[in-house]
Design goal:
By secondary structure, this protein is mainly alpha-helical. The chain is built from four helices and four strands. A hairpin with a 2-residue loop joins strand 3 and strand 4. Helix 1 packs antiparallel against helix 4. The N and C termini lie close together (10 Å).
Length: 142
């Protein structure tokens, strides 16, 4: 399977995983954005997919191409996890300070950042990468 197809599969997997994540964790937030909750969650999921795709793009720049996505190694997984954590912290700090959302008492926090959003991009990005790696086209050998 081509690297481009794997990239698209990883992006679709990221979107799917983030829709599931956002809807299953919504009870941990108080939404102050002023838009309907379901709309907000879908927009957030699309943004998460774009962020994860951008992280994959950064890894591709470091690796000077997209072929790494066919067989990612520890470096690529750790880079996805690290960048996911960094971006998550930035998103949370900015949006909490802007008053776009708050956490309910059910949200565990680390230094004021919610545990759920802290690990979301790192985890869904790594799982998306893993899923894209596992898929093969009919007749393709692994």
């Amino acid at each position: 399977m081509s690297a481009k197809k794997r990239f698209v599969i990883a992006a679709v997997a990221a979107l799917t995983l983030n829709v599931i994540w956002e809807f299953s964790h919504r009870f941990l937030y108080i939404d102050l954005s002023g838009i309907p909750e379901n709309t907000h969650l879908i927009i957030a999921s699309l943004a998460d997919m774009l962020i994860i795709s951008a992280i994959f793009g950064i890894v591709s720049l470091v690796n000077q191409g997209l072929d790494w996505i066919k067989n990612p190694g520890k470096f690529e997984y750790w880079t996805v996890v690290f960048l996911g954590l960094v971006v998550a912290v930035l998103i949370e700090v900015v949006n909490l300070n802007l008053g776009r959302w708050e956490y309910t008492p059910a949200m565990p926090t680390f230094f004021g950042v919610g545990a759920s959003p802290l690990v979301q991009l790192a985890l869904t990005g790594a799982i998306s990468l893993f899923l894209a790696r596992q898929l093969k086209e009919p007749g393709e050998k692994r």
